[in-house]
Specification:
Elements lengths: L10 H6 L3 H17 L4 E5 L2 E6 L3 E8 L4 E4 L6 H7 L4 E3 L2 E4 L7 H29 L1
Antiparallel strand pairs: 1-2, 2-3, 3-4, 4-6, 5-6
Length: about 140
């Protein structure tokens, strides 16, 4: 995505700067993320649209590039589980590549988000336990 060096502050701004097909595809992903987690918080983090759960932090992010779109899984630990779910997509590191002709659907997004929430839940529980132990 060409940003003309302007800092993007909202997901709407990010999507407006994309070619129409990419914008429509990522708007579809965004809509589905909101349907899966209605209280999700949208932020721009490292210049990419990121979705955070109010209690557990970053869940998923997406981005547009010259030759593909990406979903960022945001955790190395969930990649093995995600690989099975996303076997029809290319996964590089913690990034799932797709294109405007084959967008990640709501069912797959929901499975990814559930895995990520479960991982974050474990991290939150550890933090709560640690804060209790420190008192």
């Amino acid at each position: 995505m060409k940003t003309n060096k302007q800092k993007i502050t909202t997901i709407d701004e990010y999507l407006q700067k994309l070619p129409p097909q990419q914008s429509v595809a990522l708007q579809f992903v965004r809509k589905n993320i909101h349907e899966i987690i209605p209280n999700i918080i949208e932020v721009i983090s490292y210049q990419i649209p990121t979705f955070k759960h109010p209690e557990s932090g970053g869940i998923i992010a997406f981005g547009a590039f010259k030759n593909h779109l990406s979903i960022f899984l945001m955790s190395k630990k969930i990649v093995p589980q995600a690989k099975e779910i996303l076997k029809d997509f290319e996964i590089i590191g913690t990034t799932v590549h797709f294109n405007t002709n084959k967008v990640i659907n709501k069912t797959l997004l929901k499975k990814i988000i559930q895995i990520r929430l479960k991982e974050n839940e474990g991290r939150i529980n550890k933090k709560k336990l640690k804060s209790i132990l420190l008192k």
